[in-house]
Amino acid sequence: MKATIPASAGAKAWVALLLTLAAGYVDIVGFLGVYHTFTAQMTGTTVHLGSWLAEHNWGGATVAGTVIAAFVLGSIAGRILIEMGSRRGVRSIATVTLALETLLLAAFIPLARRATDAGLARPASAAALLAMLAAAMGLQTATLTRVGPLTVHTTFVTGMLNKLAQLVAHLILHTYDLLRAKLSDEKLIHQQNQRQALHNALFIFGIWCCYLAGAVAGRFMESRWKVQALYVPILLLLIGIAVDRWRPLSLEEGQDQPEK
Q1: Is residue 1 very low, low, confident or very high in pLDDT (cuts 50, 70, 90)?
Q2: Are 135 and 104 in contact (CB under 8 A)?
Q3: Parallel, antiparallel, or unpaired for β 146-147 and 150-151?
Q4: How far apart are CA 235 and CA 248, in angstroms?
């Protein structure tokens, strides 16, 4: 029997959706506002790195390489903070990682505005600015990795689409088994599995939808506010911090069991 998201993880699930919305938003604003380089999707940035290396575009390669390194370092730092908080019994350690992410986004806004106003489009300055966003996304990635039994990624969705495909496949197979079942007990088991697969699939689909919605909203707001549009995800992060103070995310992170 596949495990489903327990009711106790409801608050954490909503925070996961909120953070995914923020990530899609940050990703598109950083892409449009600085150097057309993604700061959350390292797959796309890695492809850019390979392309720029092949073209001997050392400036672009420097930007992409710096962004990837900053994302990894941010993720390492976030995971260390979460683990240290768990070892020392700190109830709301996610507040620390989300606060650091908020500070990075807040610091990016005036620095990016100054660089834009001065017409500084040099790769070195772009790399330094985008590194702040990438580190913020790395911190977020490490902050929340599971909701109930499900592994989740709040800053990129390729893995989420793969998981959605798996869950839909399970749903189809459970439906097939249910239609073929003869005994009432057997039918009940297949019905439970079917409901659980549907519930989990809808949540993962919601993750993808939130990333898409964040990108749409970020594109719309960036066209009007430029980099100041990042005040919106900052607000979303503050909501996440408030939830963590009420229902510590890091405690549930340790209690949640990985997928079987």
Answers
A1: very low
A2: yes
A3: antiparallel
A4: 19
Helix 123-143 and helix 10-30: axis angle, to 10°? 170
Pick left, alpha or beta for residue 226 (phi over 0 → left; psi -120 to 50 → alpha; otherwise beta): left
Long-range contacts of 199-202 (CB under 8 A, 24+ apart): 199/4, 199/5, 200/2, 200/4, 200/5, 200/150, 200/167, 201/164, 201/167, 201/168, 201/171
Least confident of 39-43, 92-96, 119-123, 125-129: 119-123
C-alpha dist (Å) from residue 115 to 66, 72, 109, 121: 18, 25, 10, 8
Of residues 260, 252, 249, the one with CA closest to residue 19: 249
The encoded tokens of residue 201 equal: 């699939």
Closest CA to 152 of 21, 36, 258: 258
* Ramachandran bin of 6, using left for φ above 0, alpha for ψ from -120 to 50, beta for the remaining angles: beta
User: Is the pLDDT confidence value at 121 over 90?
Assistant: no
Please give the sequence-ordered ranges of beta strands (E in DSSP) within the chain, or none if there are none. Answer: 146-147, 150-151
Distance CA 173, CA 187 (A): 13
* Pairs from 248-251 (Cβ < 8 Å, separation ≥ 24): 248/91, 248/92, 248/93, 248/94, 249/12, 249/15, 249/92, 249/94, 249/143, 249/144, 250/82, 250/85, 250/86, 250/90, 250/91, 250/92, 250/93, 250/94, 251/91
What proportion of the chain, given as a percentage, has pLDDT over 70? 91
Rounded distance between C-alpha atoms, residue 127 and residue 139, angstroms = 18
Closest CA to 133 of 210, 33, 62: 33
Residue pointed to by tokens 């330094």:
128
